[in-house]
Amino acid sequence: MESEDDFDMHDANESGEDDFYSGRDDDAGAIPTYDDSDADDADYEFIDNDSDDSVDYVSHSHQQNYTILSEVDIRQRQEDDITRISTVLSISKVEAGILLRYYSWNVSKVHDEWFADEEKVRRSVGLLEKPVVPFPDGEMICGICFETYPYDLLHAAACGHPFCNSCWSGLLCYSHTLFSYHGYISTAISDGPGCLMLRCPDPSCVAAVGQDMINALASDEDREKYSRYFIRSYVEDNRKTKWCPAPGCDYAVDFIFGSGNYDVTCRCSYSFCWNCTEEAHRPVDCDTVARWILKNSAESENMNWILANSKPCPKCKRPIEKNHGCMHMTCTPPCRFEFCWLCLGAWSEHGEVTGGYYACNRYETAKKEGTFDEEEKRREMAKLSVEKYTHYYERWATNQSSRQKALADLQQMQSVHLEKLSETQCQPESQLKFITEAWLQIIECRRVLKWTYAYGYYLPENEHAKRHFFEYLQGEAESGLERLHQCAEKELQVYLNAEEQLKDFNEFRSKLAGLTSVTRNFFENLVRALENGLSDVNSRGACSRMGSSKSLGGGSSRGRSGKGKGSTSRSSGSNRNIDDSGH
After folding, report:
1. I want to staple 144 with a disulfide (CB 3.0 to 4.6 A). Which of 167, 198, 266, 493 is the partner?
2. Distance linking the first and last C-alpha atoms of the chain
């Protein structure tokens, strides 16, 4: 560990005197200024908001704008909504459930529509106030099987159209033996959640079939299925709730709109974006994530690689890759056409006159005449596209694997190492939470850093100032995170391997806690800057300047020059001490 890393991070966290990323006095965690002398001497400087706004941002960013719901919570909320509608509208709970299901469990929508035009709502939903036909007191013919049944073996919805119990349920009792076949209710439930909007079997009737009839007529298995569909509809049809997309997770998330932050962490520890249900991806927007995921899985990159690294056989047009050897190419059977790799002409027309085995005068002549210019340009563009994508994807995937490793290390730390460390260093486990917090911060920063590469891939090439500034900030974030990760992983190992208490453990605590705090502040600033589209970079290739910049968490700004050149030299000195082998 170099001497630059050995300063007391506790003081840095308390007073903001030491800038973790530059190694000099500056704001702890503030995004530093940037000067690119090659870009028309443009000065880059990220502007933090004033301290009051920054404090508000920090408190707001940690406010939970969602509620995690278990199955018990979902059932309770569903029952509360049904009871509320039943009480206000003076209808049965079964009818209230049908009404809420029709309006996607939107209580206010039900109120508005009902009091605006009750008759229209009743017709649309199928809640009839009185029967269409009177229910018989004696025998009557079933409208499905056309058999005659006494009234106690017939059932009808609110409309009064009678059908026998067997046709309703699909259950037939004969000589005290229960036979099952496809009845109206069982068929509808087997077809899926559409059974929740079941109507009377009579083709001309729109009367709704409620849960009371399902419970009275359906088999135990069908009742259980219907109950599952009913509770799932409360989540899936409600625009404010969604299921956690983690495999095997049964929790749902009730989201509060208007916060602007869609990141959600379920009780199962899975973090995802509530808007698109992909994994949490701040600071990248959902559209960019969708494009990036599609690009990673699409065949377009395979085609680009084929275009960049192969040529079609002049005869059969199959792509051929050349990785070594002379220019004499022979296509695979059954084609077996022999041709020149450079000019794609027949090999029989080649010889010493055309340049021999390793060159082709025809190709060079045609290239000078412009015959191959368009083809070569297209091939070169494809090659550059593949190289660019490979660059960003490799780093995206590397940070993802590093995050997965950090998650495994955190689990190992919590289950094994903390107990041992507590014994050897004579510290209660409650005093070792700073280690867990450091690892949680590493995991979060790896996620943010991973998605900055998707952000960089789609950053327009013609916006040179933004690209330079983005790459500078990304480099600073990488170096800072590597420093925190190294401290939490390698320096901590000394204390994990110790057989007795070490005197400098409290110094290590201060350092790791300070690194965690500074890294958190910097990454919060970075996320906000990228979400704002690096708006502080103006069209002339420079950032707006201020006399002083304040860190996100407050603190004084010291020793920062207005031009930002001093800041550049400091950070570059810091970067030289970072091992670049991992980047």
Report:
1. 167
2. 18
